[in-house]
Amino acid sequence: FPLLPTFSQLLRHDNFEVRAVAGENIALLYEARWAAKTMGSATETPGWQDLLQQLKALASENNRYISRQTRVEQRALFRAYCQTVETGVVPPVTFNIRRERVVLESWRQIKQYDYCTMLLEGGMAAQLLHNGWMRSALGLESTPEAIQGTSVPGMEKTGKQRYLERSKDRGKKLMQVTGGRYFVEPPKASRNSEVM
Predict the structure, then answer these.
(1) At 169, is the pLDDT very low, low, confident or very high (cuts 50, 70, 90)?
(2) DSSP states along 63-118
């Protein structure tokens, strides 16, 4: 397998993000390897055991020059990667969107979800609720909201239209509160509130 030496080098990189992405890609490859093994088409690849030893070392690394938060995060990630490499089991990622519990059960789904989240920035929850295509791409079942259509309530307006409507609403509320005056006079101080 030609990528094994490259992954081995990336796991020794100084930057935590590089090591984490390399480990995630190794777990993704191992997941595919386990799937092929259950179908009877996988063969033993030289170098996998060395890679597994590197993953285990990173899962239990305790160097003082690495910040505590990075060590904790690294251990958790690389334990999950090791579990996939050794047993083929992927620790599921679960989260809630409104009343629905979403479970991502493979590294493929997790990587796709992360990538879509990065591209859509803040709109992923709305997409998962109402976009049947997005749900099928991630391997999730369709919900009644997603089956009805892909339009999201309130999303058909542009940001500028929503801003102008909110500004008008604020102006109307201000007029109601102030009795038609734009500027509200501050209340006059009473004699009891004066300090002598």
Answers:
(1) low
(2) -TTS-HHHHHHHHHHHHHHHHHHHH-----EEEEETTEEEEE-SHHHHHHHHHHHH
